[in-house]
Design brief:
about 10% strand, alpha/beta, two-stranded antiparallel sheet, Rossmann fold, five-stranded parallel β-sheet, single chain, binds ligand PTJ, about 250 residues
């Protein structure tokens, strides 16, 4: 379909087109399309911008990844579809491993995501060689299957669009978790060490920019990490939604 770039929701429609094509190509799960729709709804309520709370969380996330000994970026179908280049670029800046880790795991989807990331220039991708698979103690879902040389031994994991059970399991194992999730009410958002409540499409370029900055200005990271309070920050995002709703309400009724 031809989407005219004059359309008021051009960007959003193009993103939908991208994720639907990745579904047709076999690497986004059907359920990933539903998850995307839920994300869109929260993005709408959040005002579809980069607010101060996500900007703060991104700075803290950049610092945490740069200070990590063994950071890993966990990649699922939606992330591979929406931001493949950015995942690879970030992994190089913060020296992180990339690991494919799927909730709706099939070998065909794993391979398809692997091929996509290779096409986009990735060198090493974990989570695909079954000889290196091991299991986290929890959760019961296939998300617990991880790479011995990746998430299993990591100290910091970046998890875009993740479910709460595995987030909890990673935290119980003593790992620091950075989540990217548009839903500030999700269990993942509430329990992660750092939650970036924004659209992965907006987040990744900023995270790359901040990671480059703090790589060269690392001394500032300690105070940024000490000052960051995730619960307060997520509450700020909820407040943004509340303010946006109130503004709309007042426009209609006052
Ligand atoms: O590729 P798989 O098999 O690993 O499956 C991926 C999905 C996303 C289907 C799977 O992880 C899943 O079911 O996730 P949930 O539990 O639906 O959680 C996804 C979260 O991501 C929801 O809270 C959405 O609001 C949020 N989300 C959706 N799109 C975006 C997003 N957050 C940031 N940016 C987005 N573009």
């Amino acid at each position: 379909m031809n989407i005219p770039n004059s359309h008021p929701r051009y960007k959003s429609l193009k993103t939908r087109e991208k994720i639907v094509n990745s579904y047709k190509d076999g690497y986004v799960a059907a359920e990933g399309l539903i998850a995307h729709g839920r994300g869109e709804a929260f993005d709408y309520l959040l005002g579809e911008t980069m607010d101060i709370y996500s900007a703060d969380a991104i700075r803290a996330a950049a610092c945490l990844m740069l200070n990590a000994k063994y950071p890993v970026i966990s990649v699922n179908g939606n992330a591979a579809s929406l931001v493949p280049d950015e995942i690879i670029e970030l992994s190089k800046i913060v020296n992180a491993k990339i690991e494919i880790n799927l909730f709706y795991r099939t070998e065909q989807r794993e391979l398809s995501i692997y091929n996509t990331l290779i096409e986009h220039g990735a060198n090493e991708i974990l989570g695909i060689d079954k000889r290196n698979s091991t299991k986290l103690p929890e959760p019961d879902s296939d998300r617990r299957i991880v790479d011995k040389n990746g998430i299993f031994i990591s100290d910091v994991v970046l998890i875009p669009l993740e479910d709460g059970d595995r987030t909890e399991s990673l935290i119980k194992m003593g790992k620091k978790v950075i989540a990217i999730d548009l839903n500030p009410l999700s269990r993942t958002s509430m329990i992660a060490d750092i939650t970036i409540v924004n659209n992965i499409i907006r987040v990744m370029p900023e995270l790359i920019k901040e990671s480059k900055y703090f790589r060269d200005n690392n001394k500032k990271c300690n105070s940024i990490l000490n000052d960051f309070d995730n619960k307060k920050n997520v509450a700020g995002s909820i407040e943004t939604i509340k303010d946006n709703l109130l503004k709309k309400y007042n426009e209609l009724y006052r």
